[in-house]
């Protein structure tokens, strides 16, 4: 078996690492550098708290344990287990979901001491965290290489190749074909065009993901904070990032929410294009009409990457259909 993984974002890197670790021959191909696409534009909050329903609910619930497993396998993985704190401007406190607890204003101040006016209630998820998404991706790629994977960066894949019998035979690149018996498409929004090269419709569209960066005092924000105005976290002693529709409104909200934030400055913003399946759930599994073709495209890629990498590797290498992925199959569309 020779497995070609197309896409060195966090999902493709995880698949390549886990497949190589399982002992298969792996080639990882990407048009750029590891994590340089939409992975770099991710807010990178890793959280499974509150998850109750959906085809991938069980996988999401296991996401934190999967990250801790990969942390043990790849020492130095850039993960911060800060917990997350969420509140709304109005309304009654919701019921706590799995991994959550409802906390009062005093506890909010203990967790986030710079909040100007702590809410009457907030949802605290102690098990949540955040990652450096590019750093995690690079570490997964290095781990794949350590297990024998071949890495082709700055290499555009233009199409999937098939043999005379219709089975996958590899991929086409400007430097020539790369042969393989299995091709895993984990190329985010580009997965749709690559699937179309062999007549496969992949029900995924680009969805805007704005990310703003701020200069801020050290220790201003200690957890992952989720409010009506932003998702916010501190990524360096003098840096914050926020997922918010308007960077300018997010800046005003940060200054209004936290004491000592008057000097926070907007450094810039980017608008990424995250892959969004038509029903919001991951598209993961083999394509029946093209033997040897496997899809792995999803929203919440940063949270799900370690778990999905392990599950995909099991299916691709061992040929065992995992029940956890039963609701994620491409043929549901």
From TrEMBL:
Pfam families: DAO (PF01266). Keywords: Oxidoreductase. Gene3D superfamilies: D-Amino Acid Oxidase, subunit A, domain 2 (3.30.9.10), FAD/NAD(P)-binding domain (3.50.50.60). Residues 3-314 form the FAD dependent oxidoreductase domain. This is D-amino-acid oxidase.
């Amino acid at each position: 078996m020779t497995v070609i993984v197309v896409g060195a974002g966090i999902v493709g890197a995880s698949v390549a690492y886990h497949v190589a670790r399982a002992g298969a021959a792996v080639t990882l191909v990407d048009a750029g550098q590891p994590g340089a696409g939409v992975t770099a534009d991710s807010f990178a909050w890793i959280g499974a708290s509150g998850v109750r329903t959906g085809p991938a609910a069980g996988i999401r619930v296991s996401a934190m344990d999967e990250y801790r497993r990969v942390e043990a396998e790849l020492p130095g993985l850039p993960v911060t287990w800060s917990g997350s704190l969420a509140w709304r401007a109005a309304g009654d406190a919701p019921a706590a979901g799995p991994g959550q607890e409802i906390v009062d204003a005093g506890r909010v101040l203990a967790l986030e001491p710079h909040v100007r006016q702590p809410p009457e209630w907030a949802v605290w998820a102690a098990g949540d965290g955040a990652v450096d998404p590019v750093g995690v991706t690079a570490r997964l790629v290095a781990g794949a290489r350590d297990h024998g994977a071949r890495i082709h960066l700055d290499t555009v894949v233009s199409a999937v190749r098939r043999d005379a019998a219709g089975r996958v035979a590899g991929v086409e690149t400007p430097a020539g074909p790369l042969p393989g018996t299995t091709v895993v498409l984990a190329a985010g929004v580009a997965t749709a065009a690559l699937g179309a090269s062999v007549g496969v419709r992949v029900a995924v569209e680009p969805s805007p993901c704005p990310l703003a960066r701020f200069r801020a005092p050290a220790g201003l924000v200690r957890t992952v904070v989720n409010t009506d105005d932003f998702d916010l976290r501190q990524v360096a002693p003098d840096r914050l990032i926020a997922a918010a529709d308007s960077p300018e409104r997010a800046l005003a909200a940060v200054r209004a929410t936290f004491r000592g934030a008057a000097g926070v400055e907007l450094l810039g913003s980017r608008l990424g294009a995250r892959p969004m399946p038509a029903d919001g759930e991951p598209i993961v599994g083999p394509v029946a009409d093209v033997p040897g073709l496997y899809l792995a495209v999803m929203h919440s890629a940063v949270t799900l990457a370690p778990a999905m990498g392990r599950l995909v590797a099991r299916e691709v290498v061992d040929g065992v259909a995992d029940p956890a992925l039963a609701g994620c199959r491409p043929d549901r569309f």
